[in-house]
């Protein structure tokens, strides 16, 4: 196919916003759409090559995968290789275990599935994953397992039938993406069925431009169409944010913008000259390597510091990613694409060797729980405790969510986030099953544990939490209101924030008005201590026996006490004195395993300290 400068320029419009978005520059809130631009470009270029070879009767699936291996694997394997020693030095066992899993998943082009199962794309946990960005490569490679085979099989039926079939797949994928962007946002973001339509948009452009008898566009139409495409991309980059439902209909804006540039921008148009200028083309040529390098640089910068890197640091790292990308392109990408320097056999052999190596290293790290002989037994035991406790906090709460009450027992409804999970575990430990019947509703931290219409407080919810908060239990739903009505006692337990407390008086009055005076509120119990940060600084897990409480959370508890009086339970009174809080049990085990959630040992300790409160629940009805 003929070289098109504007396509390389488009790559620059794709990679720069992605890098700046991940660097945290707020102006580029929609910079993640650069990945969608890449999808369309890829769909266009690959389809153009395949169609040309099918027309000439020389398409080979082996040649196709050889080209993909030369294009994708050398730079990818280099980045993975460089990441390993940095991960070994800087990642704590839990993060190293996750990284080890990602080495295996990336080697099999399944990292999108792994990251879908682990977390969303926009959360803090995701930002710490050095290979997070490889999800898009996995989507593309999964697509290219199916797409060339489809074209080969349907070629003899003619382009019309091919286009009809692809059109049906396109519509199904887009409709599924629109539904899943709201119903299953994490799956929608990461998985091929909801992303395939983006690659197909590029494929349709290739089908159109491959027509030998198509009419050329007029100068005026080409200029208008090309600049409209640029405008759509720029709009998405600066107007979208991580709260924009993706990849549904909103994704049509940057993807159609990309297609318009592909269709209309040529070097005979001003838009083609703009997109194809030397600076954009230069960055476009190294865009793949720049994309590969930026995420590990940002992630390891976060891991190497207890505080979030500054904008200056991110800016320097972004420039560094471009610089390293140039050398990677020149000395790794370009040589491996040169068939005179490496034969097909050598390419496939090296691919298998490196894949096997990364899978082996990944399995070793995973099976060693990410430790790899780097930390003492105390650290290993701590992360075993953390992994167990992360499950323990939520396990019973999830099983009791919206469970029916036993009418012969005292009916207790516990509403809130993971802190309510702690409280449920305490109630369960004291073995009051003969007295209590417990049910639960879930309101995640920061989502507003309030008996109010959500429109009154949605503007307080952090932007990166809005999607998760959309899936919590709404206390004004009839089913949930019925549970509140049935309960003898209702306990709200959360990691309370200032804005929630400010709205709590109205919420409390609404509850009393609708259901009577049967409500209790369980306060914050955060410590000014992070075991993980302590391990980072000290290299071991010899934790202090006591630490300071969180003054910010203690002030919120004081406001709750003033508002609620004897209906408020302050956990700090159970394990703190003069702002100094007990961290370890008599046997030396952590009571709050992460600084704010109870371990099993902490559950035992708190159950003995909340006797008066538990007695009230047991005796009052």
UniProtKB/TrEMBL annotation:
Keywords of the record: Membrane, Transmembrane, Transmembrane helix
One GO-annotated biological process of the protein: lipopolysaccharide biosynthetic process
GO MF annotations, alphabetized: acyltransferase activity, transferring groups other than amino-acyl groups
Pfam families: Acyl_transf_3, SGNH
Residues in SGNH domain copies: 409-605
Domain Acyltransferase, first and last residues per copy: 6-329
Membrane-crossing segments per the record: 7-25, 31-52, 72-91, 135-154, 161-181, 187-209, 221-240, 246-265, 274-291, 311-329, 350-367
GO cellular component assignments: membrane
Protein name: Acyltransferase
Organism: Oryzomicrobium terrae
